[in-house]
Design brief:
Helix content is 78%, strand content 0%. It is mainly α and 281 residues long.
């Protein structure tokens, strides 16, 4: 799962060399929507889904507003910033989950947790001091902000899903999210891609689009739900902390992104804040 999601950053950067971010996002969702249908059909044969207006509302909120929308901002964010920046900002997601869960009175926010949150956010602030390159090849404030919106949406989906659990399960959430997202994004794909020459897209870029839709969007989430049913959530969180590390190493080796001392220090501060918040709060 961690490798699937870490590799998504690299696949996206390869795709962005030949394809606009909005077109790539629409195609990614379309690929995921096509692939999730037979998986959902197989699942419903074993356990029929619950079809009520309340259940569909939950599935739409978690699937379309949660999964598809957060991937929308992730795609636009990664397009405008570096893998190093975006992956480290995404590492703050557990902090926002805690804050939202606290507002919903699902968890208690202690003073030590507040210290951890402020520590991690100071690391994000330090990360903004690092500016190497410009445009799509370097970090930008807009790209980092869009990635932060993605983290907030993902955190909201997690906290909302903890309080209002759909009876249909995680596969149904993904099915509604990707199929519904595909339908909603079809006009966007037509508008943004009507003047784009798809014939000049290389096999590597098409492979990147397939990777984003099949491995990151489908395989990663299927592994996530499978593992979450068999190991404690705290252990799952520990594995997810490896994602920024793997993504950063891949970006440095495969994309030639810079890893400066300031970036390492910012990452260490972010991880320290998240660790304090989750382990000692």
């Amino acid at each position: 799962m961690v490798l699937c999601w870490s590799g998504n950053y690299i696949a996206a950067k390869i795709v962005f060399r030949e394809m606009p971010a909005m077109v790539a996002m629409c195609l990614r969702t379309l690929v995921a929507g096509i692939l999730i249908v037979p998986i959902y059909w197989y699942r419903t044969r074993r356990k029929p889904s619950v079809f009520t207006w309340r259940e569909f509302g939950l599935l739409f909120a978690l699937g379309v507003c949660g999964i598809t929308a957060n991937q929308f901002f992730w795609t636009l964010g990664v397009f405008r910033t570096t893998v190093v920046h975006s992956s480290m900002i995404m590492a703050t997601t557990p902090l926002f989950v805690l804050l939202m869960a606290g507002l919903m009175r699902l968890e208690r926010i202690t003073p030590l947790k507040v210290i951890g949150i402020l520590t991690a956010l100071s690391g994000v602030a330090l990360l903004q001091a690092v500016r190497s390159g410009s445009g799509a090849n370097g970090p930008s404030l807009l790209g980092d902000f869009l990635t932060l919106l993605c983290a907030l949406l993902l955190a909201g989906m997690t906290a909302f899903g903890k309080r209002y659990k759909p009876e249909s399960g995680g596969i149904a959430v993904n099915a509604v999210g990707y199929v519904g997202g595909s339908i909603l994004l079809l006009p966007v794909l037509w508008f943004t891609g009507r003047n784009f020459d798809f014939g000049h897209v290389s096999a590597a870029a098409w492979a990147g689009v397939f990777y984003m839709g099949a491995f990151s969007s489908i395989t990663g989430y299927l592994i996530y739900y499978y593992a979450l049913a068999r190991i404690p959530a705290s252990r799952m969180a520990a594995f997810q902390y490896l994602q920024p590390v793997f993504a950063t190493l891949m970006a440095v080796v495969l994309l030639g992104e810079q890893l400066t001392g300031t970036v390492v220090a910012a990452g260490a501060i972010i991880f320290a804040g998240v660790f304090v918040t989750e382990r000692f709060g």
